[in-house]
Amino acid sequence: MVYKERRDKRKFDEPRKIEAKVGIIPNADGSAYFKIGNTWAYAAVYGPRNLHPKFLQDPSKGILRCNYNMMPFSSSGERVRPGGSRRSKEISLVTQKALLPVLDLNEYPNSVVDVFIELPQTEAGSRCAGICAASMALADAGLAMKDLVAAVSVGRVDDKLVVDLDYQEEDYDDGLLQTFPLL
Fold this sequence. Notes:
CATH architecture: 2-Layer Sandwich
Order of helices and strands: EEEEHEHEEHE
Strand content: 25-35%
Number of domains: 1
Helix content: 10-25%
Strand order of the largest sheet: 1-2-3-5-4
Structural class: alpha+beta
Distance between the termini: 30 Å
Number of helices: 3
Number of strands: 8
Radius of gyration: 18 Å
Oligomer: single chain
Shape: elongated
């Protein structure tokens, strides 16, 4: 079978509607909201601040910690179990690895920068939405950055490359589906 048209009528290279705002969490050092389609991501940055316990400190540079969390009621499918999971730990690490190359943590020895990403509603592309929100929140916090990080998913459905897959395309079962998150 050949995939001829997207179910939501978008072009194959067209992302879902995007909305982005910064400075939305007043008590955070930096914060952002990123919405793509029906996926919402909120990111809050705290730091740089002293890292405790002290044996974790690095005297040459700061440390970045990321925490990705899908809220239990966020998905229209099965309910997500509260708390950490193997998936959330993996996405936290992927987010950290995406953000580290653009951050200059040499200016913050013995410090930590914490990034918390919460997703109250998800459809598809939650990892990419979280990375975009985290990058904007770091910039809002005023941290030295070489550039912003943007992420979008790309998948191959049958013979077509598709940008920003939605839930139906991620669950496409009429043919071949491969996904490639691009950072």
